Amino acid sequence: MFSANRSSTTRRSLGREGHILWLIVLVSFLLSTFSACAPTDTSSEERRPERTSLVELDANETDERENQREDRERDENERDERENQRDERERDERENERDERERDEDERGEHEADEHEADELEADENGA
Q1: Largest Cα–Cα distance in the chain?
Q2: What is the DSSP string of the chain?
Q3: Distance CA 14, CA 12 (A)
Q4: What is the pTM of this model?
Q5: pLDDT values of the chain reduced to their tens digit, one per residue, 128 residues
């Protein structure tokens, strides 16, 4: 008799434990469902930085690449302009030097022509 009494008590206690487990599962399910559906606190969202979407990130990267390309082009244009100015100065200096040489040669030529003419006049006067 003792053994029959024991087995019925065991069945009842397993039944109670089963009910308790079902209640725990049910309560945890309900809590997780309601916590997911509960309205969020907007003040905490305001403090949290906004998340940037992938599209915005891609647009930002594209803008940054475009800005870098424009910067490189501007730098190249400035460098080309400096080189052009330097070349122009060098060309002007060469032209000025050439003009000075030509003037010097012209003056020497005129001076020699004047001396030659003076020599001819002197020779004519001596011969006459």
Answers
A1: 180
A2: -HHHHHHHHHHHHHHHHHHHHHHHHHHHHHHHHHHHHSPPPHHHHHHSPPPPPHHHHHHHHHHHHHHHHHHHHHHHHHHHHHHHHHHHHHHHHHHHHHHHHHHHHHHHHHHHHHHHHHHHHHHHHHH-
A3: 5
A4: 0.40
A5: 445 555 555 555 567 777 888 889 999 988 888 777 766 665 655 555 567 687 888 888 999 999 999 999 999 999 999 999 999 999 999 999 999 999 888 888 777 777 777 777 777 777 65
